[in-house]
Amino acid sequence: MSSAKKTTKVPAKSASRVPAKKKTHVPTAQAEVPARTAGARANALPGANPYLPDVATVLERIQETAQVVTLRLVLDDPAKMKQFTFEPGQVGQLSVFGAGEATFVINSPPSQRNYLQMSVMKAGEVTSAIHKLAAGDKVGLRAPLGNFFPYAQWKGKDVFFVGGGIGMAPIRTIMLHLLDNRREYGTISLLYGARSPKDMAYSYELDTWSKDLGATLTIDAPFEGWQHRVGLIPNVLLELAPKPKNCVAVLCGPPIMIKFTLQALQKLGFPDEQIVTTLEKRMKCGIGICGRCNIGHKYVCVDGPVFSLAELKELPDEL
Q1: Which among 17, 65, 245, 304 is most buried, taking Cβ atoms within 10 Å?
Q2: Under 8 Å CB-to-CB from 212, ≥6 apart: which residues?
Q3: Side-chain-side CA neighbours of residue 68 (13 Å)
Q4: Residues 6+ apart with CB under 8 A from 64
Q5: Does residue 305 have a cis bond before it (omega within 30 degrees)?
Q6: Mean pLDDT, all residues of the chain
Q7: Residue 169 phi/psi, 5° resolution?
Q8: What is the CATH number of the domain that holds 126?
Q9: Which residue has the higher pLDDT, 10 or 238?
C-alpha cells in the first residue's frame, strides 16, 4: 500500500542560512501543559509584534496528491527554532511574501524537533503560491495559534480517530502524539478515507499505521488494485461500530463528511462530550482581533479550532 512520493530537500548545510547569533535571553518553556485556549504566539518574545511572521526556510517539499503538498520548515533563527514548542492541534499562519498568508495545522508531532510540517490543499491564490514553493525558498510563519486537542483528559481512555481527505492533517499530529505516549492511553484506532487511493495523503505512512493501529482504510468507489474497504466513511464507521464506553471519537475532514459522521457516532451512542472535531472557518489575524472568524462569542482562531460537539451545540447555527 505504500508508494513513493516526490520530494525535494535542502542540503543539510542550507537548512539554516542565518549564522549563529550571540546568545540572548529567551523565556524557558513551561513544564506544565498550558490551558487549551492558548491564545496567540505562545513562543513570541514579550512585546513582539504578533502580526510579524518569523522567516523560515522550506527544508523539504512532498507532493502528497495532485492537490496537496506537504512542506517541512525550519525557522531561520536557530534560537527560535530550538525554543519553538506547540501542542497537537494548534495552527499557524503560513505566508508567501507578495501573495498573502493562510492558516494550516502544524501536523508534525511535538516530539519532532527538527522541522515543522504543514500540508496544503490548493484552493485559491495563496495556496497556489504555496504549491509553487521549492526546497530552499523563504516563507513567513506566525505560530503557534489557537487551542489544541485535550489529550490530557483522554488518558486511560480508548481513542478512535476518523480522518477524511486533507482532514488527516490534524489527525496526524494528535495521533502521533498519542503513539509517542501510548502507555497512557487505551486502544488507539484509525479510520481514514478518501475519494480514491490517489487522494490519500501520507500514503507512505499507511503501512506503518495499519501495522501499529490496525488502521481501516476506505475509498468512496471501487478502484483497480485497491485491497481495502470501499464505502463512505460514515457507513464504514457504522460497520466497525466502535463502543462509546470510555472512548473518545476524534474526527476531521470536509464539512459534509463531518456532518454525516457525527450522525453515525450519535447512532452508535457516543455522547456529545466524547466527540471532538476541528472547525474550518476562514481566519485572518489569527489572534482574535479582526472578528473574521467569530461565531457568536467564540473566535475560532483563539477558542478553536478544536471543539467538542457539546461546545459546538452552544454556538449559533452559523456553521
Answers
A1: 304
A2: 179
A3: 19
A4: 5, 70, 119, 201, 202, 203
A5: yes
A6: 88
A7: -65, -55
A8: 2.40.30.10
A9: 238
**pLDDT for 288:** 86
- The set of cell numbers assigned to 221 is 468507489
Domain that holds residue 261: 151-278
How many independent structural domains does the chain possess? 2
| Sign of the Cα pseudo-torsion (232, 235, 236, 237, in order) | positive
Residue 163's domain is classified under what CATH number? 3.40.50.80
3-class secondary-structure state, position 189 = strand
Do 50 and 134 lie in a common domain? yes
How far apart, in whole angstroms, are the C-alpha atoms of residue 238 and residue 266? 10
Residues 71 and 164 in one domain: no
pLDDT digit string, tens, across residues 151-164: 999 999 999 999 99
Q: Rounded to two decimals, what is the model's pTM? A: 0.86
**Contacts for 92 with CB less than 8 Å, ≥ 6 apart:** 103, 104, 105, 106, 116, 118, 141, 142, 143, 144, 145
**26 in a structural domain:** no
Nearest to 203 by CA among 62, 300, 83, 104: 62
Q: Is residue 318 part of a domain?
A: no
| Better-scored residue on pLDDT, 202 or 37 | 202
- Residue 155 contacts residue 205 (beta carbons within 8 Å): no
pLDDT tens digits along 272-319: 999 999 987 667 888 888 888 888 889 999 999 999 999 999 988 765
Decide if 108 is inside a domain.
Answer: yes
Q: How far apart are CA 55 and CA 310, in angstroms?
A: 38
Tell whether 158 and 266 lie within a shared domain: yes
Shared domain for 185 and 135, answered yes or no, is: no
Same domain, 181 and 210: yes
Of the pLDDT bands very low, low, confident and very high (cuts 50, 70, 90), residue 49 is confident
Residue 154 amino acid letter: W
| Residue 97 falls inside a structural domain | yes
